[in-house]
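Table 4 source record.
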Amino acid sequence: MLDHAETGGVETLHHPTLLHPAEGDDMKSLTLHQFLIGLGWTESMKNKLIETSDNKDVMHIAAFKNGDKLSASAFSETPEEWPENTIAVWSRHAGPEIKKSKTMEALDLVDKGMTRYAAAKQIGISESAVHRAWHRRQGKAICPTCNQIIP
């Protein structure tokens, strides 16, 4: 398990009670989007989890009930056992990689310094599609996996 400093401030337990995944209460494997949106995290915790998921050393993030509040732990490798009361896990390599739309591919190029016009031309879509998508994203949290806006 990664410690607090390595996880970008995500709450962690250093010595949680462990259990085998098969014994967990309905533990679910979720996409990052599902993990961030579907579990009821606060906005500040969502931001910390996004920052943690960007860390290439983090392979899994487990969400678990710690008394009456929701907590998370980041793992650099798959643990033999998950923290007690784990309800959901995000894994970096869970399932097939998500295929990005052409607009999202163009926005990736824009994020790397290319103009919206050049990115649209290279991908083969209209400049207005890239321009509209770029404006919709301004000032909003973006999922690092699929490049979509996180509500």
